Amino acid sequence: MPQEPDPDRTVERSPETQPRRPPWVSGGVASVGAASFFSDAGHEIATAVLPAFLTSVLRGSAGVLGVIEGLSDALLGIAKLAAGPPADDPARRVRIARGGYLLTAVFTAAIGLASAVWQAGVLRAAAWVSRGARGPARDALLASLAPRGAYGRSFGVERAGDNLGAVVGPLLAALLVAVVGIRHAFFFALVPGLFAALAISVAAARAPRAVAAARQRARLELGGLRRAGVLRPLLPVAAFELGNITTTLLILRATGLLHHGTRSVTAAASLAILLYAAHNLTAAASALAGGGWIDRGGWLRGPRRVLMAGAAAYVLAYGGFALGSHAWPLLLVWFCLAGAGIGLAETAESTMVAHLLPDRLRGSGFGLLGGVQSFGDGRPGLRRRVDGGVGGRGGARADPGAVEWPRGRDREAAGSDRQLLRVLRRPAGSAGRDGHRRSGGRGDR
Q1: Among 47, 329, 372, 378, which is least packed, fewest CB within 10 Å?
Q2: Domain residue limits at 422
């Protein structure tokens, strides 16, 4: 006679029959992280070599370099904003991501062919437009590849790859300049760029297949973004970015502080670059740690807490730089704090957008986020004096020792981040109202 099954008895299953949770570090997520690593390594080679190429080879001035970099950064933000709506469509986002990575590599390497300053400027701007356009598509693709409960760790992997590439790129640039020269170093930047295009193609092949739908005109869905509840959380993000200072200016500040006593300008600049490498290593580690912190804290509180921690790290870092210490160990601490701030903040910002929006709006959301980030990065935080006038064919000469760190600007930056901390502590009144909409959005993936 068959026995009744005992409901209190635990039925053991073999490993083959036990349900398995999908790994959050899937091949697709790892491929996106690899694409960020290779691409950043490639264009950081060009970024490290570009100043010497413009001033020594093409006989441009430091002022022209500043104009080229300023225009390129502005176009980067515009490209992110404009490329967001087309990336709402899954098929388009795959093509934009592939093309963006490939064109970034090609235009970056082509700078080595330039025979005039304006040609180098046009190619640099084209590379930065391609780099900006691929961003929303890549992030929307990553969100479609990652499990919802692992968005933080997945975006942490992508940010860590980007920051590690910023460490490897300048080191490769120094080696290439010593071996093949300044001009030919640009050509070798094509190699990691092609690896990046291959990696993003592997990720795209693993993306969920979208159901064929009628093609719609790509436009920024501000109404849909507002109803999804993403505009209000972008306010503290904007406050953080307004208080942010580009790392190039932090390097310049450190160079001025280290050029003290018997240390030469060259030695000071070399030491500042090493400190910047520590900044990027810290950013990579904090992005991974912050991603895990976000996932453990939940989709609502996790990003907010990590963004608060990033803002607090920035307040401490800026305060340290304002002290004016000439000791490199203290400057190392400030650089690491700034690296932790950017690693935590960028991971939290991307994770927040991925959680709040359905797949059909993520391209627009990431494009809007990129525009906000670029606007904040475009505000200078240091005053530089260009001394020496026009000397010979080399043009203006920037003196790192003349760098000043205005106390008023430091108060402004720290004040913006302190305001961010106050905003983040406020309860999100629309959390419950938007909860159903967010849960429903998961089906769009």
Answers
A1: 329
A2: 27-206+219-439
In a domain, 194, yes or no: yes
In a domain, 19, yes or no: no
Query: Who has greater pLDDT, 372 or 111?
Result: 111
Q: Is residue 21 part of a domain?
A: no
Query: CA 78 to CA 419: how far, in whole Å?
Result: 27
- Cα-flanking dihedrals φ and ψ of residue 24, to 5°? -75, -30
Q: At what angle do helices 301-323 and 265-297 cross, to 10 degrees?
A: 160
Report whether pLDDT(140) > 80. Answer: yes
Helix 247-258 to helix 265-297 angle (10° resolution) is 140
Angle at 372 between CA 322 and CA 88, to 5 degrees: 150
231: domain CATH number is 1.20.1250.20
Question: How many domains are there within the chain?
Answer: 1
Sequence-ordered list of residues with C-beta below 8 angstroms from that of 402, at least 6 positions apart, any chain: 256, 384, 385, 387
- Whether residue 424 lies inside any domain: the answer is yes
Angle of helix 359-377 versus helix 328-356 axis, rounded to 10: 150
The token duo for 42 is: 């490639």
Sequence-distant (≥ 6) Cβ neighbours of residue 148 within 8 angstroms:
299, 355, 442
Q: Considering the entire predicted model, what is its pTM?
A: 0.77
Band of pLDDT at residue 437, cut at 50, 70 and 90: very low
Write the DSSP assignment of 5-48 as a string of letters.
P-TTSPPP--TTTS--PPPSS-HHHHHHHHHHHHHHHHHHHHHH
Helix (H) or strand (E) holding 390: strand 386-391
Q: Give the separation between CA 124 and CA 400, rounded to whole angstroms.
A: 24
Is the four-CA dihedral 275, 280, 283, 285 of positive or negative sign?
negative
Give the span between the Cα atoms of 299 and 351, in whole angstroms. 8
pLDDT digits (tens, 9 = 90+) for 317-332: 989 988 888 899 999 9
